[in-house]
Design brief:
Layout lengths: L9 H6 L23 H21 L15 H25 L18 H11 L2 H6 L13 H9 L1
Helix pairs in contact: 2-3
Length: 159
C-alpha cells in the first residue's frame, strides 16, 4: 500500500470525488458495453445508479429506531453514526442537484409511463393517501409530517 493511498490523491479525486474504487476510465474507446449516443450522460447515469446503494448502506442502522430499546447502548451509538454518515452522504447528492436539475443530468432517465402500469399506478396513489405515508413525509414537503430524525435528536440530547 502506498501512503497516502493513490485513491486519496487530488488526481484521483478529480475522477471520483468519493476516492473509491473501482473507477472505469475509458480513454481509448474500447467498447465494454453497447455503444450509447452520449457516453458522458450514460456514464453519469450508471455512476449515480450504483452510488444510490451508498445511501442504503449508511442509512441502514437508522432502522434500529424501530426496536423497543432504540435509545440504549449499543443501538444509540449505531443510530447516531448512521445519522452522521447519512448526512455526509446526502451532501454528495446535494452537490449533484446544485449542478443539475436531476441527479444524473438535465432530464429524468426514469420516464416510466404510469398509465402503462395501471395496477402500479393505483397502488402508488393508494399508498400516497395513507396516513402513515403522509406522516412519513419530510417536514415542509407537500404536507407537514413527522421528522424522521426526531428520535435521533432525542438521543443526541441525552449524550
Amino acid at each position: 500500500m502506498t501512503t497516502p493511498k493513490e485513491t486519496r490523491s487530488p488526481k484521483f479525486a478529480a475522477i471520483n470525488p468519493r476516492c473509491k474504487t473501482p473507477v472505469l476510465i475509458d480513454e481509448n474507446g474500447t467498447r465494454i458495453m453497447p455503444s450509447v449516443d452520449d457516453k458522458e450522460k450514460h456514464r453519469t447515469t450508471l455512476q449515480r445508479f450504483h452510488e444510490s446503494e451508498n445511501l442504503h448502506n449508511v442509512f441502514e442502522d437508522i432502522e434500529l429506531l424501530f426496536l423497543p430499546k432504540w435509545d440504549q447502548s449499543p443501538n444509540r451509538e449505531r443510530i447516531l453514526e448512521a445519522c452522521k454518515r447519512t448526512l455526509e452522504e446526502l451532501t454528495f447528492w446535494e452537490s449533484y442537484l446544485e449542478r443539475s436539475v436531476f441527479v444524473a443530468g438535465t432530464s429524468s432517465r426514469l420516464d416510466l409511463e404510469r398509465e402503462r402500469f395501471g395496477a402500479l399506478k393505483k397502488y402508488f396513489e393508494l399508498v400516497k393517501e395513507m396516513d402513515c405515508a403522509k406522516e412519513a413525509l419530510p417536514v415542509k414537503y407537500e404536507t407537514v409530517g413527522r421528522n424522521l430524525f426526531l428520535k435521533i435528536y432525542e438521543i443526541e440530547e441525552k449524550v
